[in-house]
Amino acid sequence: MAAVPETVMLSTANAVANDSPTPQAAEAAESGVVLALPLPPATAATASLKEQPVRRLPRILEAASDAAAATLPTIVVLGLLLAVWQFACGAPGSALPSPSRIWTESHEVILHPLKGVTFHGLTPSVEEGDVGIAVHILTSLRRVAIGFGLAALAGIGLGVLIGQSRLAYRALDPLFQVLRTVPPLAWLPISLAVFQQAQPSSIFLIFITAIWPVILNTAAGVQSIPPTYRNVGKVLALNPLQYFTKIMLPATVPHMFTGLRIGVGMSWLAIVAAEMVQGGTGIGFFIWDSYNSSLLTDTIVALIWIGLVGFALDRIVGWIGRRIAHQS
Amino acid sequence: MKTRSYLALEGISVTFPTRKGLFTALGQIDLSIERGEFVALIGHSGCGKSTLLNVISGLTKPSRGVVFLDNEVIDRPGPDRAVIFQDHSLLPWLTVEENVRLAVDQTLKGSRAERRDWVRHNLELVHMGHALAKRPGELSGGMKQRVGIARAIAMSPRVLLMDEPFGALDALTRASLQDAVMEIQAKLRNTVVMITHDVDEAVLLADRVVMMTNGPAATIGEDLRIALPRPRNRIDVAETPDYTHARAEVLHFLHQRFSNPVDQAA
After folding, report:
1. Most exposed residue of A136, A145, A166, A271, measured as fewest CB within 10 angstroms of its CB?
2. In DSSP terms, which residues pair with B38 in a beta bridge?
């Protein structure tokens, strides 16, 4: 591409921009253009117009077969694992329940995740006591949302501070480096002693777990802003607020979201552990409760829920990060 | 009162602290540039050309000496001295139009429509009017640098500073951008200071070629006026005796009087 003379590239870019409404057609036109260099632009344009209808339908089928090719190996492996698991644990008296035993003993839990919730119109009301697994998950998610939200705000703020100011970095970074190695559960006694109640102390636990990767990644992002972007800001005489919104924030978003993604994953790890110890409500409590009631099959169902929700959280934060990175 | 040139560098020297003590990059530079003049700065790598340009832009503070622009002292960067960076430094998250718009919003007071039209007008000048909604990542190196030029001239700067603007481009693209710069310069008559490594580029584009001695404590070795008539056409001009003479003089300076310090060490 670089070896093509500038003037020629300009004219072909024009042809692509004007005559091909879909990116696929643009691609086709662009790849055709290399061969069609001596031709006048009109020829290239008609070629790309002709190609369009032919390419449309197979694209959809192609996408479907791509999707199948991507998911099929996972499905096969999953099937094999279940078969091996069933074979290994299928004997009566096996310590670990087999898939079929999980179904026979826990299908109530699997099929009625919203047990104990009644809908009056659109507003749900939750009964006291024995509730479905989704209700426990939602309780945990609410705690994660509050704790992680606070951690994201404070973490981005502190990250920008130590990324921008050398003095703040020297003062705070060693503290952060030490504190981030403290395992979440080690904070629990202090948290319980200070907050007395399950809800605020588990939110604090999420906060203190998730904040470190957010701080450190944001700071690394701010420090790695290319010097030329800073120079652009200086030459344009942007004021500090403009510099923050127009250059620093967009340049740091990818790093920031790496931190947020790690943070949300760690929050989910921490909340389950915290609820197992504290009891009361939440998916961690559900696991502990089912273990104490010798309902190991329920525990396994809960494990699968936790895995899927954690996966979803990770993907959602990653998706938001990509959206923002594209837009800003 | 002493009459100063439009852009006047008086007794500029720059020293940097290093591990081995103070390093003098520039020693005692005096340079006077008239309004509308196109000056090329040429010299070997590491001779302090970029430092000198940064002093004019205000990004580097001189240890001694003063830069005057239109009789005002320059002590900080500002949009009246637009810089075209070697790596174009367009912001990758903004479109072509938004990149230029950011600069125009900082410099032009006027209605939204006026500013928008001014952005588009300047992108048309560099023949990039077709790529308003593209992001820098979708453009070739030459196109990015065209947008970089549009961003700089859209600021209507008092001085246009170019830091090896075409250094990273291949020869054909570079020639096409040089033509674009000459075309724009014929229309706008900016005061331009351009750093280059390329003897032909310097002689073709500039009214004056300022040659710098090798560092440390680099200074101005020779100041050559290029009297070629404009508009200049790269093919026609290359055959004139004036051109060959100017070219030979710069080559002589760079390769005999002040040859590359790396070669001397070897």
Report:
1. A166
2. B192
Q: Note whether A181 contacts B: Cβ–Cβ < 8 A.
A: no
* First-to-final CA distance of chain B: 51
Q: Which residue has the higher pLDDT, B111 or B216?
A: B111
Give the span between the Cα atoms of B53 and A129, in whole angstroms: 74
What is the domain partition of chain A in residue ranges? 6-70, 130-327
Cβ contact, residue pair A237, B59, below 8 Å:
no
Distance from C-alpha of A82 to C-alpha of A71, rounded to nearest angstrom:
17
pLDDT averaged over chain A?
81
Report the alpha-carbon distance of residue B212 to residue A99 in Å, rounded. Answer: 80
Higher pLDDT, A216 or A35: A216
Question: What 3-state class would DSSP assign to B23?
Answer: strand
What strand order describes the sheet that includes B38-42?
B81-84, B159-163, B192-196, B38-42, B208-212, B220-225
How much is the ipTM here? 0.88
- Contacts of B234 by beta carbon, 8 Å cutoff, 6+ apart: B175, B178, B179, B204
Q: Which residue intervals of A90-226 are DSSP H helices?
A: 99-111, 133-164, 166-179, 188-195, 198-223
A·B CB contacts under 8 A: 75
Judged by CB atoms closer than 8 Å, whether chains meet at B131 and A17 is answered as yes
Q: Decide if A237 and B176 are in contact by the 8 Å CB cutoff.
A: no
* Confidence check: pLDDT of A141 > 70: yes
What is the token pair recorded at B45?
Answer: 């790598």
Cβ-defined contact of A325 to B93 (cutoff 8 Å): yes
What pTM was estimated for this model as a whole? 0.74
**Is-contact B66 B55, C-beta < 8 A?**
no
With contacts defined as CB-CB under 8 Å, which chain A residues touch B93?
Answer: 250-251, 325, 328
Mean pLDDT of the A197-207 span: 89
Cβ atoms of B14 and B62 closer than 8 Å: yes
What are the C-alpha distances in Å from A180 to residues A167, A184, A215, A269, B10? 20, 9, 10, 15, 54
**For strand B208-212 and strand B38-42, is the pairing parallel, antiparallel, or unpaired?**
parallel
8 Å CB contact of A5 and B87: no
Q: How far is CA A76 from CA A79, A83, A86, in A?
A: 5, 11, 15
Contacts 24+ apart (CB under 8 A), A324-327: A324/A253, A324/A257, A325/A250, A325/A253, A325/A254, A325/A257, A325/B93
For helices A249-278 and A283-292, angle between their N-to-C axes, nearest 10 degrees: 30
Q: What string of H, E and C letters represents the secondary structure of A300-326?
A: HHHHHHHHHHHHHHHHHHHHHHHHHHH
A68 vs A62: CA distance, rounded Å: 10
B101/B112 Cα distance (integer angstroms): 10
Write out the DSSP string of A100-120. HHHHHHHHHHHH-TTTTEEEE
Tokens (6 digits) for A325? 């990175």
Q: Kindly report which listed range (A52-66, A237-251, B9-23, B136-150) carries the lowest average pLDDT score.
A: A52-66
For the residues A186-211, what does the mean pLDDT come to?
90
Q: Which residue, chain included where needed, has tokens 């994660």?
A: A144
**Per-residue b or e along B142-157, where b marks 16 or more CB atoms closer than 10 Å to that residue's CB:** bbbbbbbbbbbbbbbb
Q: Which of B87, B93, B104, B169 to mutate to test the interface with A (most CBs of A within 10 A)?
A: B93
